[in-house]
Description:
This protein has 2 domains: about 5-60, 434 Repressor (Amino-terminal Domain) (Orthogonal Bundle), CATH 1.10.260.40; about 75-105, no CATH class. Helices cover about 65% and strands about 0% of the residues. It has helices spanning about 5-15, 20-25, 30-35, 45-55, 60, 70-85, 85-105.
Amino acid sequence: MMIGDILRELIEERDMTQKELAERLSIGVSTLSNYFQNNRQPDYETLRRLAEFFDVTTDYLLDHSVDKTHGHNEEELLRIFRALTKDQQELYLKQGKLLMTYFSNNKNTISISYTKKK
């Protein structure tokens, strides 16, 4: 996944526009647009500010993981979990445990599909 795709997911989750993000971080709209189109990479300081704004790691933004077995999906799960309230985190954990129990009891491969919100 490229940084523009990751940034697009992050602003969609917050229901904001590229222009709003540019204003909040004092980044030129055209500069930010180049990041979203994967035409340019942000410099270190901008990358740090983006990570801080979205409460993610720079590795998450760069889709980089030292542990190649988990990578971006694990980082995304952690980011989602951290954004929840304590009560929501408890529910999230309970649902995850139920899902694990279900899969361990049903050894057959189960295919799950979903439609991503655009």
